[in-house]
TrEMBL record:
Transmembrane segments: none annotated. Signal peptide: none annotated. PANTHER family: FAD DEPENDENT OXIDOREDUCTASE DOMAIN-CONTAINING PROTEIN (PTHR13847:SF285), SARCOSINE DEHYDROGENASE-RELATED (PTHR13847). This is FAD-binding oxidoreductase. InterPro entries: FAD-dep_OxRdtase (IPR006076), FAD/NAD-bd_sf (IPR036188).
Length: 441
């Protein structure tokens, strides 16, 4: 089994060699920090709207090194954050508009991939959520019975389910590399191997020179904490994934997963999975939730106990796969604001903007954020700039050691709640309700 190496997805397509490193000071119209999907989509749509713009993207490693090339491949219509938080800002009408915009972004990504010739194993196959206890079933409120769930996928212990057709499976590295290729094809410079150390109005200071621009956009998601002055803004939360060896036809028949729908559950320490284009199961969940001091990993290597925990979860869902070979394991970070709700913002007086904090739902939200930043930077009043995440401000996370102790305590509480519900508790555990309140979810 390979552990790390950024991700299984990147190992499949080949790790890029950082190119076009910055060589001294430059000036441009728009400087974007971070060549994940947020930065790349923003560059794509800005250049599409105004091809005269000189746009530069600076990236510490290579385009797609972070969550954009490590995620579970869910092009999902799930909200990037708390429905309650968005409703508090804009009411039920604003929340409905946000839901519609996210759902529409699934199709926007698919349309751009078709238009730009990006082959990323995209299948609009929907997502199946399963409940494996009465408490989970009550939270899910799904329309599918246990028998109907089994007609799609035979998940052990499933008592109810919900199917959402508006979601797609995707190969993350193929998608982000394809978007990067499309951006470069438009003439946007992506300076890889160039680490930003400070952002200020009119400039991005890097380890290889300063990029001066009237518009500077921070698109670092889980790596935001590594930038000077932003350590407590978004928590770099860790998630880990394993990929099995390709399953045999008999194994697929045994578990009944004949389609390509995504699969998730309603546990508090939830899991998420996809059937890959080459016949594997890639399944993720929480490992070590947070590293002291907002540190992030180097190359995606995860802990042995996390791998065993995910292996155990896979066997619990599909007992017949208890001995299946795990070919690869890796991890990555996602950005979590204090109220667990994403934001997009731009201050025309300073030229500074940002987007992120997607709490694990970024594969779709990055596209919506890129189009929203485009409109904000160009001074457009649009339906996108009116969405409730625009200009959303939350307080900072607590200082250490409170931050580390709090996050680890929260996830111990969530796992304790799952154990109680799995043991027969017919309602959502009070332990989880308390944890949600403390977490700000």
């Amino acid at each position: 089994m390979r552990n790390g190496g950024v991700s299984f997805w990147w190992q499949q397509v080949g790790l890029p060699v950082p190119a076009d490193r910055l060589d001294g000071d430059v000036t441009c119209d728009v400087a974007i920090v971070g060549a994940g999907l947020t930065g790349l989509w923003t560059a794509y749509y800005l250049h599409e709207a105004d091809p005269s713009l000189d746009i530069r993207v600076v990236e510490a490693e290579f385009a797609g090194f972070g969550a954009s090339g490590r995620n579970g491949g869910w092009l999902s219509s799930e909200l990037p954050g708390s429905a309650r938080a968005y409703a508090d800002v804009a009411g039920e009408a604003g929340l409905a508009a946000m839901r519609d915009a996210v759902r529409g972004s699934v199709h926007e990504v698919i349309d751009v991939a078709d238009r730009e010739g990006i082959e990323a194993d995209i299948r609009l196959s929907g997502v199946l959520y399963v409940a494996r206890s009465q408490a989970q079933a009550d939270r899910l409120g799904g329309e599918l019975s246990a028998a109907q769930v089994a007609e799609r996928v035979r998940v052990a212990g499933a008592v109810a389910g919900h199917y959402d057709p508006g979601c797609a499976r995707v190969h993350p590295a193929k998608l982000v590399s394809g978007v990067a290729r499309a951006v470069r094809g438009r003439g946007v410079r992506i300076h890889e191997g160039t680490r930003a150390v400070r952002i200020e109005p009119g400039a991005v200071v890097t380890d290889r020179g300063t990029v001066r621009a009237p518009t500077v956009l921070r698109c670092l998601e889980g790596f935001t904490a590594g930038l000077a002055g932003h350590r407590r803004e978004w928590l770099p939360m860790n998630s880990a994934i394993i990929a099995t060896a390709p399953l045999t036809a008999a194994q697929w028949d045994e578990i009944g997963w004949a389609g390509e729908e995504l699969l998730g559950d309603e546990a508090h320490a939830y899991c998420y999975a996809q059937r890959t284009a080459d016949g594997r199961i890639a399944m993720g969940g929480r490992g070590v939730p947070y590293r002291f001091g907002s540190r992030t990993d180097v190359d995606g290597r995860t802990q042995d106990w996390t791998i065993e925990s995910l292996r155990s979860t896979l066997a619990s869902l599909f007992p017949s796969l208890a001995g299946v070979t795990i070919d690869h394991a890796w991890c990555g970070v996602l950005g979590v604001p204090r109220d667990w709700s994403a934001s997009v913002a731009y201050d025309s007086s300073t030229g500074l903007g940002h987007a992120g904090g997607y709490v694990g739902s970024g594969l779709t939200a990055t596209n919506l954020a890129g189009r929203t930043l485009r409109d904000l930077v160009l001074g457009r009043d649009s339906d996108l700039t009116a969405l409730p995440w625009t200009g959303h401000v939350v307080r900072r996370w607590e200082p250490e050691p409170l931050r580390w102790a709090g996050v680890h305590t929260l996830y111990r509480l969530y796992r304790a709640a799952d154990r109680r519900e799995d043991a027969g508790l017919a309602r959502t555990s009070r332990v989880a309700r308390i944890a949600n309140r403390v977490a700000g979810r």
